[in-house]
Amino acid sequence: MTHSESYIEVLKKELASKNRELKIEKAFEKVREHAMSMRHSSDLQNIVNIVARELNNMNLDITGVFMLINNDEIDKQFTFWGSTGVAEIYMKKAAIPFLDRPIYRVLAEATTKGEHFFVEEYTREEKNEFFEHLFKYPPYNSSTPEWKEQVYSREGGYTRSVSVSHYTSIFVVNHFGRRLSDDDNKILKRFGQVFEQSYTRFLDIQKAEALAREAIKQASADRVRGEIASMRTSEDLKRITTIIWRELETLEVPFIRCGVFIVDKETEEVQVFLTTPDGKSLAAMSLSFDANEITSNAVKHWKKNEIYKEHWNKEKFIEWTKSMIDTGQIQNAETYQGSSIPPEALHLHFVPFTQGILYVGNVSTLANEKLELVKTLAEAFSIAYARYEDFKNVEEAKNKIEITLNELKIAQAQLQELDKLKSRFFANISHEFRTPLTLILGQIDSIMSGNIGMKEKGKLQVADRNAKRLLTLINQLLDLSRLESGSMELKAEQHNIVSFLKSLFYSFESLAESKRIILKFESEFNIIPVVFDPDKMEKIFLNIISNAFNFTDTEGEIEVGLSTIDSIVEIRITDSGIGIPSDRLPNIFDRFYQVDGSATRKHEGTGIGLALTKELIELHKGNISVNSKEGEGSEFILQLPLGDYEIKKDELYKQLADKSLQINNLETTEAEEKNTVLSSSGSDNDEIILIVEDNPDVRNYIRELLETGYRVIEASNGEEGVSKAKDEIPDLIITDVMMPEMDGFQFCKKVRNNEKTSHIPLVMLTAKAGFDDKIEGLESGIDAYLTKPFKAKELIVQIDNLLKQRKLLRERFSKSTVIKPSEVSAISADQVFLQKTIQKIENHFGDSQFSVEHLAEHLNMSISQLNRKLNALIGQPSGQLIRSLRLQRAADLLKQNSASVSEICYNLGFNDHAYFSRAFKKQFGCSPSSYKNGN
Predict the structure, then answer these.
(1) DSSP letter for each residue of 835-860
(2) Helix, strand or coil for residue 606?
(3) Is 355 strand, coil or helix?
């Protein structure tokens, strides 16, 4: 071959290659063009057909083309489109169950690995074995025997080239075992990419169609609900059919007539509302369940909540119409048919809903997709119709209610008048009782404080206790009266209900110990915010706890538990007491009701406490209930609305302190008290308070009250308390009486007898409320004595006053140069300490090396202990006291003119004359020379 011939041959090949590339690009462009023109998801079938046809037009050595949908369920079912080797013969979308054969298994595994390309080869035996299974499933099971024989008779095996993309895979097969060339495989890869793009657009269109369908369904359902909701009378039901007609048209459901069957199970009748073919409403028909075959079958399916379908020919329709005329349900056939000619055929669809059936008639059976739309319409109709039924029932009951209300108003007016008389009586008599009781209590207290014998004092204590109990009952009656008249107001703010109730609960510790009753307190959270009035919440809680103690025998148990449920806090107060008989439970919150009303009842009571408790809880927008079993105990359940969790923990504590929660003594009367806030002197947390209390819950509660204003330290018993008092030298100590290892009285004596701690104010909290106990506490050196349950306000005021007194004393002596120990403190240990301190300093006036360290060492204290002690007593740290006393001695010597200024300066330990002059002038307002000369 010549050079020119070779060149021409090369050109021909290049031209053929370019023509083939051009043909491929045209094929791609055709696929892309049709993909971009897709408007409905159903258009994808056309794209599939074009891809298959164009691949066949590429003259590839293939027997079939297939497009597979990749999905997570590919190992259960294959979903694909395909074609034979003839371009005009296409197979629509098909779904075939997964066949556990290599040809399927390898394809499934490969397509799940992601985008790639692979080629497979199988023998003729493997091919035929696979097709034996394939021909059992649609659409292949409908293949002709000739076609099956042709597949089995082909020589060679089975080859497949597969291009895998994200959503789709495209593959071609050869039933003769011949592989595609590399160039043909490249073409297949490119077609795979083009089909993937087309399928992506299909998915977008499919999503848009789904959203559009959902929007149309929702709008239709909303309109139906709105129309039905506007109905007021049974006459309005005539509008039902026109509403359904309009919405079926909107949803593009094919039909020629429609209607609604309202089913009444009580009367076993169906009220039928139908339309004519032109959308006009017909008069309502009333049919019994067994009026005819169609009604009977429709009701049976309605009871099973199943869709019922029926087909009528022309004769069946005429028969139905005639029966309706004969029974007087319709006037004439023409009105019912909408024309003089009956329909040739009618497919009836009955879709159930709660109150009845939605009926749609059409010339052909509705597809499942359209029936789903009818079901949506039926559900919307059901919701709206339920409202109509409620309204109708209300209207029917309205007249009966009005008659009953008129009768009740007369009876209510009479009862209200009786209640007013009763309330006025209780209010007036209660006020009358309070005055003499107050005078009686005052006289008893006056006599008890005098010097009388123990026997007489015991009798007076009985009288005092019972007079206070009577006053409590009177206060309860007054509270009930205020609640009835609506004059009781809540002074409610947000507080931590956990610490509030915990403190109240453990104030019964002494009583529980004496009765050998176990106390348990548990809470889901440490802080649960609730808006409540502390005074009234205390009455609620103490009423229930007091009852629990009254009705719980020795060795019993009382438990309080708090938990949150949704937007409420639930408080459960459980006891192991005698319980309440089941027939008495419904009445225990009634006023003046007593579980045991007999003359021989074991436990006293008035029936006021729980009635007041219930009304106070309801005033807080809460509720109370009780579970009880006779002989096994009772459980009172209080539910109150939660407060705002956004309020921080420290703010809750601050509220507890600033608002001074009142915790009233069980045996004291309600008092009008002014609000008190924490002293601002503790705002910098520079004052230390030591809490000595063995009960951790009470200790935590006191700490919560105080920690926003003071630096709080804690000790769990007297021994530990003494040690911490010596180390820290607190500004004030709060202690309990009953503690392990060392009781409160012993602890106080040790504090008072130790010169490091003797000056510290002591506040004692105890459940021992007897007069002799108070005297013993005061004799042991206690500054304030509060009984449990103590008032938080009173504790805060006592602390504030004690610290203020100390502060005033410190201010008095903070600049004093003449200190008399007897004026500083009445406590002998403090006087001895001050005398010793002053004597040590005076003994070392001439020693310039004598320092704070030496003084602390002489007094057997650390510098910080010494400074805190001196600051607490006279407001002067040790260094200032040494300088002040030296300067005072210098002033005395200068007045006596006993030596020169310089001599006095150096004799009193001042090495620097200039410093001595500055310090002297600062303390006495003039220079040493002027002072000496009397200027």
Answers:
(1) HHHHHHHHHTTT-TT--HHHHHHHTT
(2) coil
(3) coil
Please state, in angstroms and rounded to a whole number, the distance separating the CA atoms of residues 515 and 509.
Answer: 10
Global pTM reads 0.34
Give the Å distances, CA to CA, from 827 to 33, 760, 761. Answer: 107, 10, 11
Per-residue three-class SS string for 379-445: HHHHHHHHHHHHHHHHHHHHHHHHHHHHHHHHHHHHHHHHHHHHHHHHHHHHHHHHHHHHHHHHHHH
Rounded CA gap, 439 and 655, in Å? 36
Q: What is the mean pLDDT of residues 773-793?
A: 69
- How many Å apart are CA 686 and CA 679, to the nearest integer? 12
In the chain, what is the straight-line distance between the N-terminal and C-terminal CA atoms, in Å? Answer: 143
Cα separation, 720 vs 742, in Å, equals 9
Q: Return the half-sphere exposure (C-beta side, CA atoms, 13 A cut-off) of residue 854.
A: 11
Contact 434, 472 (CB under 8 A): no
Mean pLDDT of the chain: 77
Helix (H) or strand (E) holding 192: helix 182-229
Nearest to 581 by CA among 548, 549, 628, 624: 628
- pLDDT tens digits along 563-594: 998 888 999 999 998 888 877 787 788 765 55
Cβ neighbors of 669 (< 8 A, separation 6 or more) are: 468, 471, 472, 475
The answer to whether 181 and 200 are in contact (CB under 8 A) is no
Instruction: Identify the burial level of 645 via C-beta atoms within 10 angstroms of its C-beta, where 0-12 means exposed, 13-18 middle and 19 or more buried.
Output: exposed
How far apart (Å, rounded) are the C-alpha atoms in residues 145 and 854? 121
Nearest-angstrom CA–CA distance, 930 and 918: 13
Contact between 28 and 192 (Cβ < 8 Å):
no
For 732-748, the three-class secondary structure string (H helix, E strand, C coil) is EEEEECCCCCCCHHHHH
> Please, are residues 467 and 440 in contact by the beta-carbon 8 Å criterion?
yes
Burial of 245 (0-12, 13-18, 19+ CB in 10 A): buried
Arithmetic mean of pLDDT, 849-871: 75
- Tell me how far CA of residue 36 lies from CA of 33, 194, 211, in angstroms: 5, 12, 20
**Following DSSP, what letter does each residue of 164-183 receive, concatenated?**
E-SSEEEEEEETTSPPPPHH
Tokens of 153: 């008779």
DSSP-derived letter for residue 93 is: E
The torsion angles phi and psi of 453, rounded to 5 degrees, stand at: -70, 160
Question: Tell me: the pLDDT tens digits for 625-684?
Answer: 999 888 889 999 999 998 875 554 444 444 444 433 333 333 333 332 222 223 333 334
